[in-house]
Amino acid sequence: MLSQQNMEIQYRAVRENAGIFNRSKRGKVRAEGADCLRFLHGMVTNTVESLAENEGNYAAVTSARGQTLLDIWVHRLQDCIYMETEPGLATKLIETLDRYLIADDVALSDESDIWAIWGVQGPAALELVGRVVGHIPADLPEHHTVVRAFGGAPTWVTARSYTGEPGVDLRIAQDHTDSLRRALVTAGGTPVGWQVEEILRVEAGIPRYGTEIDESVVPLEAGLNHAVDFDKGCYIGQEVIAKMHFRGRPRRYLTGLIGNTPVCGNITVNDKIVGRVTTCVKSLHLNRAIALAIIRRGYHEAGQRVLLDDGSEAEVANLPFTANRLT
Q: Which whole number is the average pLDDT over 300-323?
């Protein structure tokens, strides 16, 4: 466990300068072949066919009932579609997609062990990365990529924020990972551990697969509207998701909670279970216990008082908990 002092040092680095995150364990899948664009476009909730080279987006893979099987980051590169998902889920992604491959010219391969990923987050992130791999455009759109080089190795730099601060991920071959990390630290970056990363994520109100998102949740119930293109053609689960969006409302909502102690578990109102706390942390910005939660419609509005498993009270809060510099 990190000391409070070290946590505050790492936290301030991201909020005021640039923090470095090791994201190398993320699942990485390569898709290629003549039918790749068409096939993937019909498999995920966001657009694929209309992506230009080096463009990307965030999407979900859903079941026929609209349940979220995976969330993925899709990138169209020069010679393939590159997809990222949570650590340990590359095999699940490949098996899920392969189930629908019949005569399509599509090859899927797990490249999780081939690539390292170092994330840099904070107001000085682009400046720091520029000193290491070359200039990164300040207006690089979220999920879009530029290709640079480090130590003679191609380096894919993708705009991505998972802290509420501007940032990028750098993907490079595994045999360059240590030298790239050293260069980022030498340039002024501060390594950040998972505990502080979770605090930043919760403060930014960003859900994560395996906690806020799982197979029991429809994307819209986890606040993933930005992962859905409501104007695209058919994909698996579209009917359920479109009906929820256009004709009704989600049964549950992703919300924030503010309390006195970090407590996970059930949420009750008048002895009725109305939701569950999914991730709870001590906010270094608010100096309060905060949490992400999935709460039933009717109990999800800011200001609603709820009871937690330890008997303490909490209040429903709007997300994000802190100002997002990207908006």
A: 94
pLDDT tens for each residue of 82-111: 999 999 999 999 999 999 999 999 999 999
Contact 244/218 with Cβ under 8 angstroms? yes
Q: What phi and psi values does residue 296 have, to the nearest 5 degrees?
A: -60, 145
Predicted TM-score (pTM) of the model is 0.95
Using alpha carbons, select from 294, 274, 286, 269 the residue that is nearest to residue 322.
286
182 has pLDDT over 70: yes
Interatomic CA distance for residues 220 and 207, integer angstroms: 12
Match 């080096």 to its residue by tokens.
Answer: 54
Superfamily of domain 18-24+115-188: Probable tRNA modification gtpase trme; domain 1 (3.30.1360.120)
pLDDT tens per residue, range 32-67: 999 999 999 999 999 999 999 999 999 999 999 999
8 Å CB contact between 66 and 244: yes
Q: Reply yes or no: is the peptide bond before residue 191 cis, omega within 30 of 0.
A: no
CB proximity list for 145: less than 8 A, separation 6 or greater = 54, 55, 56, 75, 77, 156, 157, 158, 159
CATH of 27-110, one of 3.40.50.620, 3.30.70.1400, 3.30.420.40, 3.40.50.300: 3.30.70.1400
